[in-house]
Amino acid sequence: MGKVLVVEDEPSIMTLLQYNLEKVGFDVITASDGITGLEIARNEKLDIIILDLMLPGMDGIDLCKTLRQEKIKTPILMLTARDDELDKILGLELGADDYMTKPFSPREVIARVKAILRRATPSLDQEEQTEKVIQFGTVKIYPDEYKVERSGELLDLTPKEFELLLYLAQHQGKVLSRQQLLDSVWNYDFVGDSRIVDVHISNLRDKIEDDTKKPVYIKTIRGFGYKLEKL
What are the backbone dihedrals phi and psi of residue 182, each rounded to the nearest 5 degrees, phi first? Predict the structure, then answer.
């Protein structure tokens, strides 16, 4: 199924996650503090990281930020006991692919992990249908190489930002609702929480637009969603 790093300082939650992940076939590595988790993430070839927000040594926000600064793009599922929207938004802005608020069910964690991995590893059929290069304006997307260039310069996108931009580009000129984007890019229902889409759209605009207040490429369709203009 893949190799998972679980960084969690609560023994009961760590045991619960490890047991259920191994039960469905994942190879699980664990760390109980942020510094150890960072070293493992640097040195192991991981498929996904499950990362608690509150950790000794280095918290989950700083760990996530450090990994992304070091160009380590392993997908991250962030766990938090806080019901604080700012923490969730900050985690997503720093490059986390998803978040879950404690308490949670092991079944939901497994579903989220599998969904993230499905998006990170396209099926053979998807690969065969992938176009070699998709271009709009000065932006070029290379699906097979998992990279994006703007005016010839390589952009540093998180895996989820890449998937979202690719999906928008594959549907240029079409208005897409937030729920459509959730279902297609995240591949499961966020129970009505569409703010994760808005955060990723904002991040993409920062990277591809000259003026984020007057976007040329990604347009907001008020009350509905977003559209990538045909240019």
Answer: -60, -50
Instruction: Look at the pTM and tell me if it is higher than 0.90.
Output: no
Inter-residue contact 148 to 142 (CB < 8 Å): yes
Contact 77, 113 (CB under 8 A): yes
pLDDT greater than 90 at residue 90: no
- Close Cβ partners of 48 (under 8 Å, ≥ 6 residues apart): 2, 4, 5, 74, 75, 76, 77, 113, 116, 117, 120
* Delimiting residues of CATH 1.10.10.10 domain(s) in the chain: 124-228
> What whole-number distance in Å separates Cα of residue 76 and Cα of residue 48?
6
Count of beta carbons in the 10 Å neighbourhood of residue 121: 11
Cis bond upstream, residue 56 (ω within 30): no
Q: Which segments of the chain belong to CATH 3.40.50.2300? A: 3-120
Domain 3-120: what homologous superfamily? Response regulator (3.40.50.2300)
User: CA–CA separation, 190 vs 168, rounded Å?
Assistant: 19
Topology of the domain covering 124-228: Arc Repressor Mutant, subunit A (1.10.10)
pLDDT digit string, tens, across residues 110-159: 988 988 887 766 544 444 444 578 999 999 999 888 889 999 999 998 88
Query: What's the CA angle centered on 144, arms 143 and 145, to 5 degrees?
Result: 90
Q: How far apart are CA 147 and CA 7, in angstroms?
A: 28
